[in-house]
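Form 7-S
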Amino acid sequence: MTGTRGAGPVPGRVRRVTTTRAGGVSAAPYDSFNLGDHVGDDRGAVARNRARLAAGIGLPAERLVWMEQVHSRTVTVVDAPQPEPVEVTDGLVTAAADLALVVLTADCVPILLADDQAGVIGAVHAGRIGARIGIVDQALEAMVSLGAAPQRIGALLGPAVCGRCYEVPPAMQADVEAHLPGSAVRTRAGTTGLDVRAGVARALTEAGVTDIDVDHRCTLEERTLFSHRRGAPTGRIASVIWRDTGAYDREEGTDR
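Output:
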């Protein structure tokens, strides 16, 4: 959607994509569209899968920005393609057009953020640890520094392990709930659990974000997705956000 930032229009429509396991070349147990290059998969297969992702969203591979995710609260602002994954970060923010920000997950919560009017987007990896120590607030702060406003930001929370499946010890649940209110739940078995997505949604709401969409698929239950808790080693799905100006031709018929 075209909006305004400062004195001029911001071209491009914000697009979001979440992959599944299907459509790639990786062998078991990473079959088949694994996009993580840090999980033990053949690097050549991962490179081919990443090339398919780039072609599928209609961008050159070098315009996809990856992260070295470490369960931190570090958020990095980027304004151009990066030759390597951005080191030691769990969030990316940009105001650049046709630059796709990628977050990899296999149970953690991927968060895609956009202020269409300001032309500012963000991609965040929010696991139990990162969400607990404030990655959401850090991402919003970085977006605001580029001209975004919380009340204009739309958020998509992608597939993640659900609270019915995510059992944790009582002490861990209490600790996370104290730092990420709204995350404490009971599992399907009646034991103490965590719904990190619910805690993230509450954190966004308390920060002023009101436009929040949730992909309720559970990575552990949904076998078309990767889940580290269901079985390791395993691959990673990607959640991608970019501002598409149409500057690059989309290649038809390519697997995403």
